[in-house]
Amino acid sequence: MKITSPVKSKEFVERIIKAGAGELFGGVIDPIWQNKYGKYIEFNRRGSYGKQGNCQSYQEIGEIIQIADDYGVEFDLTINALQMWEEQIPYVRSILEKYKKVGGRNVIVSDLSIIPIAREYDFNVIISSCANVYNTYIAQYLKLEGCSKIIFPRDISVQEMRNISETVPDMQYEMFMMNSGCRFQDGNCLGVHNTRFKELCSFCGKEGWDYHRLDGMELSSEEKQSAFIVSEQYRRLLKHACGQCMIYPMKNWIDSVKVLERTGSEERLIELIQLTNSNICLADESKDYVTYLEKMTFPEQSECKKHMSCYYRTDMFAFKNQWASFCAEHLKPGNEGSVDFVGINISTNKSNYEFKVYHKKRIVEEAEDLVSESPVILKLAKNNMLSNVTRIERIDEHHRICLDFNLRNRTNENMKDVFFLVQSMGDGIQEKLPLIKKLASLEINPESNFKYASLYYMGCVETEKDGISALKLHFLTRKCMNPDCIFQDYYYDDAYYLERLKTIDQFELHKCLDLIEEYVLAGNAHLWMIGCDFFSQDMGNIRGKYKIYIKNVNENVLKKIEELLMLQGLNANFVERLREVDKCVGSLKSMYLYGIGICYELKKGYSFNLYLKPKRCK
């Protein structure tokens, strides 16, 4: 990965290269064009800045190329106006001819009609960000046209860049890294820079906005101060953008990164190049993304340190920050001994992550403080069916407490009472009773008196107002000599359970199977449990949330799931979130990934539960 830097004067070329730039680009003031069109019609997107943003002559361009050649660095001339008219083509040819005479080899263009003209002069053609290359189809076309590099637009996503780079290889790709001008996408800009008409970004970022209350009341001094801070922050965010955090994850997909200070200070430009160069070196040395993020050098702007001025928005920072906050509050030193599992939920229909703390199991007789007085619990207790209870803290906006109960004495007679209790919770649940019985009849013991013993866990979320707001059922997928001692004398029979699940007519379970069947049959994991969640709003219908859990997973499990999700065309941003959580979890020193729950809910799609266990338990 090399750094592409603007240059507008031969005086700074050596310093820019020594700071770390591996490629240069710039514009030139062409007197013939200027006499014909003035500064309101540009042939490059910074033409109206004159010598403030461009080299002053072709002779100077030639001298820059000579210096760059001594260091093995290329120079690219910008001819990247959004569109060229037919009458302008002779002027473009004149520019190309003069550039060729001083040793030019590379041109940056936006208007695709210029490509064959530039190729006539044997130029290497680089596609400007202004051309708006957002998909693989246009990238493939540009490759066939003989272009050598594509500069991605400012507002493209990380996953889109990766997808194009992987799908259309043997092409160089460049992404924006640092910006101190306008952060909007050039290809969609209809403004003219540095003129009295102004461009949209200058208007949006102007100082002196007037604020008024909608109710017509006077603004208080506090409101005025707050409005000033907001407008100042907005103005700064319009002008500053940074992509330093993306150097590590993009190093295998991107050939160069663009650092911009084209119309500003060369000293500032050199500082940005040095900063970027140090982070590129760090990325090459870092063993993983988390290590890179911990050690990378941030630009001095406070907005960047808060991830407010990112070119490429990802949820990596949301996860990292949420995880750190969760650990600080719920996994304090000294409390680890009370934790059995930590759960992380990643959902396609939510941007936030949900965390759960599964506390150590307690035998029911010693957990009266956790056992509610609900009819369900009392009935199970009367039949001596309650074994252990697990307290689960759901760290979400509701901060609910859930209880999971291990069932014992799951004889056929006792299970009749369980099914009766389940069907009494609503018409929708009653309609699902045949499915529940099918799952409960997954054989875990050959004795005929334990026909429904697979139903091992029941969970309830209860409120004073609504009673049971959620019912959770979990079914074992292992063969046990003693159904009440599932951790002793047991073995896995994954092929049997997978085949049985395929015979059950439940769309959501089949969606879960799509992601894990091949992986489990290859010996990379074992089936752990099957789960069904029914919520209060679902009690009157027949839908819920369905889950297949796998355990003893290897470190590549999420990568395999990511591949399958991409084949299904799932939202790329969600896959990116899953990928970054995978990287972060893989770097944890105190916990390891014990298992995964693959979940599917109609209308909401996939979600994933990751279960981490303290390494002391490994």
From TrEMBL:
<dbReference type="Pfam" id="PF01136">
    <property type="entry name" value="Peptidase_U32"/>
</dbReference>
<dbReference type="GO" id="GO:0006508">
    <property type="term" value="P:proteolysis"/>
</dbReference>
<keyword id="KW-0645">Protease</keyword>
<keyword id="KW-0378">Hydrolase</keyword>
<dbReference type="InterPro" id="IPR051454">
    <property type="entry name" value="RNA/ubiquinone_mod_enzymes"/>
</dbReference>
<dbReference type="InterPro" id="IPR001539">
    <property type="entry name" value="Peptidase_U32"/>
</dbReference>
<dbReference type="GO" id="GO:0008233">
    <property type="term" value="F:peptidase activity"/>
</dbReference>
<protein>
    <submittedName>
        <fullName>Putative protease</fullName>
    </submittedName>
</protein>
